[in-house]
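hey so i finally got around to running the thing on that chain from the lab meeting. sorry it took forever, my laptop kept dying and i had to restart like 3 times. anyway pasting the input first so we r on the same page abt which one it is
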Amino acid sequence: MSIPIALTIAGSDSSGGAGIQADLKTFAALGVYGASVITALTAQNTIGVSAVCDTQPAFITAQIDAVFSDLDIKAVKIGMVSRPQTISAVVDGLKRWKPAHVVVDPVMVATSGDRLLAPAAIDLLRDELLPCASIATPNLPEAAALADEPIATDRASIERQALKILQLGPAAVLIKGGHGSGAESIDYLVSAEGMKAFAAPRVATKNTHGTGCSLSSAIAAGLARGFQLDEAVDRAKRYVSAAIAAADSLNVGRGNGPIHHFYALDGND
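ok and heres what got predicted. didnt touch it at all, straight out
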């Protein structure tokens, strides 16, 4: 039996905690072979992003076609796509190869607060990329930006924003609660079937670098392995929650350190 394959289309994080690096670690931890299409290089560490070098659209296209023409891609995760030209190249590739599952993480702002998506690209993300998505995974600030509303502070406003994002075309929306408050971090999955909550205890740690990237890639890994969306989200939530809980054991960097993708190898489950 061959290993399921997932593809990440995202930016590279030179510190290894987020982006392509986090996605590939997540795929490996969850039993999925990972391929990658790099949309941008970033010079960053646990403190912040100091420079971004975007990949030329023609080379993004070349990477997409090289991977899909040879590998049996079961699911795609899309992260940092910072320019309109990048989004267009990715959308054209998705339409050309028609993968069964597409997880779109609308990366707009890094954990450190650095903006990673150019304002001119937001409309194209809404109009062209989100309609390609099996599921979109915005955090609370990103969901507010996509819905053109203030940041949601209760379940009712989260559901309203999710429904507005659904109207943009994705089959489902998972609004992540990591930026919220309270004893639990609650993610809300909204689709045509209704709304479902996924809760986990909120962990008191500054080491959450790459959390959003890892959650979306964990969902893609689950879909690549053949799980239904609800189960893929549930498994991804539990995996990332455990990786956050183990993050302080790594002691990487002086700022917001990474989560522990391979916590299970340390016996922490």
